[in-house]
């Protein structure tokens, strides 16, 4: 019914996860088992080799790197992808970081090119640098931070490829949204692919750390792909959006539409092709790609087809996360400052402000050094989103329906007594 | 050398434009003539016909619509496109609005479908509405505002098509960035395609009203297009980005790269294809698409080819603006509140904060009802960005080089004595 995980380590990084599988009564239309999966780990990254190719004695500070990791995986159409991703995604991140162990611990800018010849790292050898050219006056500066972002992005892609490869042998079904946090060298990286959400609540202020990827927020990306690759629409769908389904008797009339370039609406004369089902339709939680799926980024879904059709949906889904970075050292955090991760089961019925109010209400009733305060907060958020049985359903205090979805919440304290000592 | 235009109308909408063609000395590398063009007009839109198809007596309030219009067009590779767009874009907007005259003056929601049969407007006839369907539970609400946005978006596209058609007969050369403002029914619509910029300075606060479209800000859109349509790269370019030019002797080594999905960087092994010139290269003002052009949205450029090649660049450029809307009725503006439009000649050397400081400094030295205060402000901004001759060049007060580009500025006062009477 619930899971609580506490990572050993500084109080700064203690972490609590609460996942609630709602009762069957309010779980209508969902699977019988909680498709949310979670993972929190401390991961040690051993350097693959000296990046310069030169074998050398590792100094104590350059023997390896540690990162703290939290992941929420909200599965759909089967729990296989969420389960596999929760077990393996952090290992892909570790693999991607292996090449960077030495570079990330070296304060000088990362080398742009790594020589394969021992002893000749590309960018520190002047003969490898191109002089100013007409269209290429200088080399770009690449930060350590952007290497970690690139490592996480590529890890998501490799995880997705692994799900594609193993879906037959291991019967890995379905797909999942993935929201993960990597804490490495003083910075918090929040990577989101799907409709989960992360916010930081700091001194009562809300700092969004992710955005949701849905048919509505990614409409123009989806439409552009359908426009550039019409074969992906299989003659069944139109890349145009209409405010409602076009009917055949409306041929020749003029209806509002939007294409991949537009944010506004205009009228167009209805033609035969416009009678096809639209690639993107519906609003809010009911928005769908190809009348099938309500999220546009995530892992898995390699077998997903349009209902009663062999048309694959995967080409329209992206496995790439958006990664946001928060520098933990730029602000002195107090024990009430937290990073909250939640699946859409939480956010569908709880606003950012309501979460911030719950953070304040719950944490203020506990001593700052009482670690159970974060567990209590996670419980309060999950139970608050579920509601209580009343009036033929699970109801929130405002009498609206509670969440009928799986609900999972991570609370990651950002500060605490002694956390910066 | 300079132009000042004042629109007749309420003090609210008096407008001042200052355009400065820099002296030849500091115009190195630019054309000998100012390629910036500007336009400000009051445009009357006559309804095309009753949208319902039914002929009826127009009420006095529904005879037509008026909009105020300001446009800045920053030309490149010839002034033809900028000149033609400055003369015609507002007419395309007028044409697009003609269908909407009646709808925009009707407070009820816009009809989703317009019947071609007289007397049967689509959405007010219940038989035209689709009932709830499994994937299409309801119809979308479309606002009046989004119809105006759509009209402006389509007007940009039609203007671009006209430039394509007339480029031979009328020798319309080059392309232009376009930044236009439409004031209609209490709302300010700011549409930007290119690297000009609009900000509102309100009570000293800066409200950005546009963003710039450059090879850097649109990198991922450009790379995605090159990835999905590799034929557009002509075997000469790679859609991957590298931090500097790859050299053939680096084949087999590992270099940092980014693809269309990444915001971070990662290492990849250099292969033969990576030796091609990158689709996007350079940084800041020196960033280029296909080593040729530094803006990625605008009008024209239909003949633009990669240097020493027949490869067209136009497929990578977008003629669509981003439109932002500001509701003028939601705030009581004072005479010091202004909308500032400027070409990149202004913004390259002047920050938003410096512009806001100049707004405050100049306007406070004039009486609030002195209309010449806005002219003085436009002059101060243009001359401030140009600098003064000193130390073998035109220098700013901080001794940096002044702008060597054409500089054009519009000041649009948002409030004033009696403007809301």
Description:
With 421 residues, chain A is of the alpha+beta class. The first copy, chain A, folds into 2 domains: 31-48 and 64-108 and 144-213 and 319-413, PPM-type phosphatase domain (Phosphatase 2c, domain 1), CATH 3.60.40; 218-294, no CATH class. The first copy, chain A, is 21% helix and 23% strand. Chain A has 7 helices and 20 strands. Chain A has helices at 80-98, 101-104, 144-166, 219-228, 344-347, 352-363, 372-386; strands spanning 16-20, 36-46, 64-76, 113-114, 175-184, 187-193, 197-202, 205-208, 237-238, 254-257, 266-269, 277-278, 280-281, 288-289, 299-300, 322-327, 338-342, 388-389, 394-395, 407-413. In chain A, strands 2, 3, 5, 6, 15 and 16 form a 6-stranded antiparallel sheet that branches. A 5-stranded antiparallel sheet of chain A has the order 1-20-17-7-8. A two-stranded parallel ribbon of chain A has the order 9-12. In chain A, helix 1 (80-98) crosses helix 3 (144-166) and helix 6 packs across helix 7. Chain A is globular. The first copy, chain A, starts with 15 loop residues before the first strand and ends in an 8-residue tail after the last strand. At the A-B interface, strand 4, helix 3, helix 4 and strand 10 of A face strand 4, helix 3, helix 4 and strand 10 of B. Strand 4 (113-114) of chain A pairs antiparallel with strand 10 of chain B.
